[in-house]
Write a structure and sequence with these properties.
It is built from eleven helices and seven strands. The protein is mainly alpha-helical. The longest helix has 17 residues.
Length: 250
């Protein structure tokens, strides 16, 4: 049995919380002692999860302490520089610089590496070294990404983030694109819909408005919009985000 992303389970709202219920299930399963039953749990090392699972575990692995993870990150960066539409045209010395710097500073975070590559890939040769003055954390990376959103797009991006955050089901691209046809700056606090503002290409309109913080995914025969990583929603709804950027649900 494999339980992945355990830290994503809610730890509040109910008694017991969903996380506590799963912890109790894992404890019950391990105490059964069945020789053919093996339980593998992957999670970030949050305090309550560590405290409850470590006494039950016969083997624990911290990926941040594994040398193989650094090699995997290096291989990913090398592959990206060879295959990306823009970076594959770079000089090899520029590619080598990016590979060395990102591998050195990644600290085990694939998501951090992806965000930096997404930023670097469109750089002109003369800007690469300057662009490599990278934020050292995911929070700082996301904050920089928010600041890079064009001012004229910020209101729409903010609304799209809110919609994705509170939606009771995954939103189709076409549904989310409808929000781009609302005028939120009319002055009377009543957004007005303008059919002429509907984008011709919903996918491009939504993704270009919100940069790399969201992505589209195929679910069955429909295309839905989601945050590109669970840490994006966590950051946007946290108190860590800079004043004025937090997703106040108004």
């Amino acid at each position: 049995m494999k339980i992945g992303g355990f830290e994503l389970s809610r730890n509040a709202g109910l008694t017991p919380s969903p996380r506590e219920s799963v912890l109790e299930l894992v404890e019950w399963l391990t105490k059964l002692g069945y020789p053919n039953l093996h339980v593998c749990v992957t999670s970030r090392p949050e305090a309550d999860i560590r405290a409850n699972l470590q006494p039950l575990a016969s083997y624990c692995v911290s990926l941040h302490d594994e040398s193989g993870q650094r090699e995997d990150i290096n291989d990913y960066i090398v592959s990206f520089t060879k295959t990306d539409t823009y970076m594959r045209k770079w000089k090899q010395e520029d590619k080598d610089l990016v590979i060395e710097r990102l591998t050195r500073d990644a600290d085990g975070m694939f998501r951090w590496v992806f965000c930096q590559l997404d930023k670097l890939r469109r750089c002109l040769p003369g800007r690469i070294r300057r662009a490599l003055e990278l934020p050292s954390t995911l929070d700082a990376t996301y904050e920089r990404t928010l600041l890079d959103i064009d001012e004229e797009n910020w209101t729409f991006a903010h609304r799209l983030f809110q919609c994705i955050t509170v939606a009771s089901h995954p939103l189709r691209v076409e549904e989310l694109a409808e929000f781009l046809a609302f005028d939120f700056d009319d002055g009377d606090n009543n957004p007005k819909f303008d059919a002429d503002w509907r984008p011709e290409d919903p996918d491009h309109a939504v993704l270009s408005t919100c940069s790399s913080l969201i992505s589209v995914a195929n679910v069955g025969d429909i295309t839905v919009v989601q945050f590109s990583h669970f840490s994006v929603k966590e950051f946007l709804t946290s108190t860590r985000v800079a004043r004025g950027m937090t997703l106040a649900m108004s």
